């Protein structure tokens, strides 16, 4: 495969359950639209850990993209270290608001190769193509990357103006039965008490779009 996209565990607070990682699902769709072979793993789901370990042992990929929110920062670095230990030649891409703000610090101190700064749907496709074809990353807008001992920031990428051009999230790569946020959320605030055996399903939206 060309790239594995990973949602790291949220190590700080799972009392309200977990949601499908919508941002990553947009990236899966964007990559597939460019005929890029991608696999998605949510490491909040136990069965995905088995697949993750299998990929590393068999060296089925050498490009890994990891989403990182602040509450995932420690687990993200653990995943980065594990990938680099078993596949040293791999390229690791991080994305998310947390890493965008701390790109230089992260690249200097951890085994991360590239950080996507801002929206990722277009950028991730260009990065994967550049890595596969051994092209110059300087030509990819919207990234910060490590080259030898230097940290290089490319030109900023403009926000996507035509939101209708973005493919719908790739919902069919997630098993909704594994996500329990809505049941725990409604019960915790007494909004809509739900019996233990009652099923409730839902999905999030990115309201800024």
TrEMBL record:
Coiled coil region boundaries: none
Pfam family, one: B12-binding
GO molecular function list: cobalamin binding; iron-sulfur cluster binding; metal ion binding
Keyword line: Iron, Iron-sulfur, Metal-binding, S-adenosyl-L-methionine
Keyword 4Fe-4S: no
CDD domains named in the record: radical_SAM_B12_BD
Ranges of residues in domain B12-binding: 1-138
InterPro entries found in the cross-reference section: BchE-like (IPR051198), Cobalamin-bd (IPR006158), Cobalamin-bd_sf (IPR036724)
Cofactor(s) in the UniProt record: [4Fe-4S] cluster
PANTHER family, A to Z: ANAEROBIC MAGNESIUM-PROTOPORPHYRIN IX MONOMETHYL ESTER CYCLASE-RELATED
Entry protein name: B12 binding domain-containing protein
């Amino acid at each position: 495969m060309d790239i594995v996209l990973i949602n790291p565990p949220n190590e700080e607070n799972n009392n309200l359950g977990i949601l499908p990682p919508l941002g990553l699902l947009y990236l899966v769709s964007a990559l597939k639209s460019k005929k890029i072979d991608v696999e998605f793993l949510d490491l909040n789901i136990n069965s995905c850990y088995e697949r993750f370990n299998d990929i590393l042992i068999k060296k089925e990929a050498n490009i890994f993209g990891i989403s990182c929110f602040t509450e995932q920062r420690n687990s993200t670095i653990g995943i980065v270290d594990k990938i680099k230990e078993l596949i040293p030649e791999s390229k690791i891409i991080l994305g998310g608001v947390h890493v965008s703000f701390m790109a230089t610090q992260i690249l200097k101190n951890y085994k991360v190769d590239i950080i996507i700064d801002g929206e990722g749907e277009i950028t991730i496709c260009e990065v994967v193509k550049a890595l596969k074809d051994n092209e110059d990353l300087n030509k990819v807008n919207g990234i910060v990357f490590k080259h030898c001992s230097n940290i290089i920031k490319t030109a900023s990428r403009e926000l996507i103006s035509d939101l209708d051009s973005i493919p719908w999230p790739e919902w069919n790569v997630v098993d909704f039965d594994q996500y329990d946020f809505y049941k725990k959320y409604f019960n915790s605030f007494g909004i809509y008490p739900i019996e233990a055996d009652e099923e409730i399903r839902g999905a999030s939206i990115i309201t800024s779009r």
